[in-house]
Amino acid sequence: MYFLIGESDIQVASSKLYDMGIKLVLVTLGKDGCYYKHSSGSGQIPAFHVDVVDTTGAGDGFLGGILYNISRIGYPIEKINRSDIEEIIRFSNAIGGLCTTKKGAIPAMPSMDEVKKLLS
To answer: I need a labelling partner for 111 at 20 to 30 A (CA). Which of 20, 21, 60, 84 fits?
Structure first.
C-alpha cells in the first residue's frame, strides 16, 4: 500500500484509493487474510489455516477467484451487498490458501471440489 499510495496504514490507504473511484479495494495479507473496502463497508476476512508448501500462485489464485465471482454477477460491482462481497473474498481466500499446499503455480491451482470442501 505504501508503494501505491504513500501510506502504510491499510485503512487509511484503502480509503484514499476508494475515494479516487476504485469500486473495490482488496489488500491481501497472506496468513492474515484479506482487507477490503467497498461501498457496502470494509473489513478483514481471515485466511484459511493450511500447511504451506509453496506460496507461488497464491495471489494469482486469489485474484482469479475474485474475477470468477464478479464476472458471474449481472449488475455493477458497487451494488454487491456486504455479505456477498465477504463470501466472494472467502471463496478467493480458499483458492489462495489451497494454492500454497502444493508446489508450483499452475499445478497448485485447486479444483472447484477442493475449494468447496475447504469452504464447508
So the answer is: 84
* Domain ranges across the chain: 2-119
The string of pLDDT tens digits covering residues 18-71 is 999 999 999 999 999 999 999 999 999 999 999 999 999 999 999 999 999 999
Residue among 48, 43, 24, 31 at smallest CA distance from 116:
48
CATH architecture of 2-119: 3-Layer(aba) Sandwich (3.40)
Number of H helices and E strands in the chain, helices first, is: 5, 3
Neighbours of 3 (CB within 10 A): 6
Q: Which of 51, 60, 84, 113 is catalytic?
A: 60
Is pTM beyond 0.85? Reply is yes
User: Quick check: is 51 catalytic?
Assistant: no
- From the list 48, 35, 34, the residue with the least C-alpha distance to 97 is 48
Gyration radius from the chain CA atoms = 14
pLDDT at 1 over 90: no
